[in-house]
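dumping this here before i forget
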Amino acid sequence: MSDHRPGVEAADEADEAVDTDHKAPQDSGPGPAASSRSASAAGPTDRTVAASRSAKPRTRRVLRRTLIALPVALGVLVAGAYTATALLDIPSPPTLVHLLTTEPSRQGDLFDTRTIPASATPAPLPVHDEPLPATVPWKGERAPVEQFLTTTHTNAFLVLRNGRLTHEWYRNGVGPTTRLSSWSAAKSVVSLLAGQAIEQGRLREDDRLVDLLPQLKTGGAYDTITVRDLLDMTSGVDVPENYNEYYPLTGTARMYLTRDLPAFARDHRDLQFPPGSQGAYRSIDTELLGQVLAKAQGRPLADLLADNIWAPMGAQDSATWNLDHDNGHEKAYCCINATPRDYAKLGQLVLNNGRAQDKQIIPPAWIQRIATPAPHKVDGWGYSAQWWHPPGGNGKDYSALGVYGQYIYVDPVSKTVVVKLSDHGDQQDEQETFDALRAIAQSS
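structure:
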């Protein structure tokens, strides 16, 4: 932008004229006596007034320049912000501001989505009220259940026993038809879609990622990543799990904002360790798995979910899946937005060995796969095909788990499903929450 500002220069010239008008007249009288009288007449007071008059135009010039410069500077900053977000291919500055002020459970409203329609034959959950235990274990003590829910910023809490809805709780402003974000609990849903594709012969766990997505070939160790590595979080792809909204341009936070997920995958092919050698939780693994599924099936993930799970299980409400851009790619690693009861139906589908409404929707072999911990632990916990096996308990339970406190907990021993959808801290109190969920499941 040019620094030549004619309006400012014209204002400066006018101010100089004002300065000249206010200068004291020169004494033209003869001899020293006249000069002495002139100096005496002017005195200190007159000099102060003259200086004050001269200072006022200079102050006005500074104010004028400031008032003109501030909007220009703000304009440059705003233009720079829009240019930067466009170059980085991330949402516009207003959307980024909204992300900082919107609860995580409702951030799905800020991004493009693909709709997953409600089932044409919805199957409402049968209701049979049963009391919860008076207290649950919480950080070495016992706490009332409602205190546990409010302390962990719960939005919705549902308990199913033997397929019946025995308890349902919502905070103010949330109800049965409120869509709430799954965050990484969506990973477990992608697993169910993968199990279906494997059963249909469209995909194998031994398939190499780059054979399915050849644009990702590197000629190095990256090319040995298999579908199994992606399922069990053993790929080694070096995209750290950063959720800090104040550092949005690195790791998973950057992937969350990108408007081009395939390009993000191409740009992040470095490895932290050799594929298959160890486990490390990485959302990029699920994103790659989702891209593989969409390619193998020839359809978007939301459409696969709608036709292959949502409709046959009898989902009561429509859901959405966030995209990287309008009509783009699903964020496979997160961001299904659904109602609490339909999340509960997903848990019940898994508990029922993949059956719902007298149909086998998920292959029983795949339910066995996710119920059996894989050889490598992930961040110290059991893990298998995008489902968590937290330490403790009866050794048979497992769960979908999302950042900020999203749980679809399944306990086959007590035939219990617990759904907890929250706005709690980043990966906060997860072990303690599982201890409380287990106490509720075992209280029957």
